[in-house]
Amino acid sequence: MSMEMKRVAVVTGGGRGIGRAVCLALAAKGFDLCVNYSGNAEAAAETVRLCGELGVKAVAVQADVSTAEGAEALVEAAGAEFGRVDVLVNNAGVTRDGLLVRMSEEDFDKVVDTNLKGAFLCCKAVARRMMRQRYGRIINLSSVVGLRGNAGQANYAASKAGLIGLTKSLAKELATRNVTVNAVAPGFITTDMTNAMPEAARTATLNTIPAGRAGLPEEVAHAVTFLAAEESAYITGQVLSVDGGMAM
Ligand code: NDP
């Protein structure tokens, strides 16, 4: 890839939380951005505006990544707008917490369909394009919970552990094409997702963090931009924890 070529990133769930921080960190590195969202158009529009302030082109694209139509439409929209896709960040994620004995099949499916199948569908939608380009960086947002498990999050932990298997398998399939596939495993990061946790659960989790504090979305975004860099070409199939020491 020549130095002048404008690089393009697609970030699922880029409207808020970690996704927004990832968009802004990539924008600061000069990437044009396709900011995906599912329901919160206002948050996505704000992310687009903030990217614009950093001097790059950004568009918001509504799509439900848990459906094949949504994932394909998202990648097609990015291709139509920018002509290429260099980076895919599978960040969209949901929780439906509860103990397994009380967990509905619906809550299991919702979480796995969004977090794991959504990433599979987006990878599938973008893989041929990246192979043709002989260039690509795919980064999947896993979690400390995918590495260690968590009572009350069997569905979420399964989806996040599954993402690691997906990451390593696809890394092996795409390695010769200069397409890397890696995962980032955040610990406890301050976003809407963790703000929604009951106070007692938040305090209990905070007490397990060696660093003694929650992480910031920007700290996760830093790891994503590192893996998204052209210079990270020889790093593939890895899981990079950003968790203040939780998963040691
Ligand atoms: P938030 O709950 O703050 O944001 C979730 C994002 O996912 C939103 O942008 C939302 O879009 C989007 N989304 C949800 N469902 C879909 C869908 N079907 N299609 C497209 N987009 C969708 O989450 P966080 O920022 O906290 O988390 C981001 C990622 O990081 C997730 O994968 C999460 O599991 C992971 N993570 C987070 C940790 C944390 O402590 N916060 C720790 C470890 C991992 P919209 O705005 O339109 O609703």
Number of helices: 9
CATH superfamily: NAD(P)-binding Rossmann-like Domain
The helix/strand series, from N terminus to C terminus, equals EHEHEHEHEHHEHHHE
Show unreliable segments. Answer: none
Spatial ordering of strands, largest sheet: 3-2-1-4-5-6-7
Any idea how many domains?
A: 1
E-strand count: 7
CATH architecture assignment name: 3-Layer(aba) Sandwich
CATH topology: Rossmann fold
Tell me the overall shape.
globular
Mean pLDDT, all residues? 97
Oligomer: single chain
Structure description:
The structure is a single chain. The protein has 248 residues and is of the alpha/beta class. It has a single domain (8-239), classed as NAD(P)-binding Rossmann-like Domain (Rossmann fold). The protein contains 9 helices and 7 strands, in the order βαβαβαβαβααβαααβ. It has helices at residues 17-28, 41-53, 68-82, 105-133, 144-148, 154-174, 192-195, 199-206, 217-228, and strands spanning 8-11, 32-37, 58-62, 87-90, 136-141, 179-186, 239-242. The longest helix is centred in the middle third of the chain and has 29 residues, at 105-133. The chain is globular and about 50 Å long. The structure holds NADPH dihydro-nicotinamide-adenine-dinucleotide phosphate (NDP). The site of NADPH dihydro-nicotinamide-adenine-dinucleotide phosphate (NDP) has 32 residues, from α1, β2, α4 and α7. Residues 12-13, 15-19, 36-40, 43, 64-66, 91-94, 114-115, 118, 141, 143, 186, 188-189, 191-194 line the site of NADPH dihydro-nicotinamide-adenine-dinucleotide phosphate.
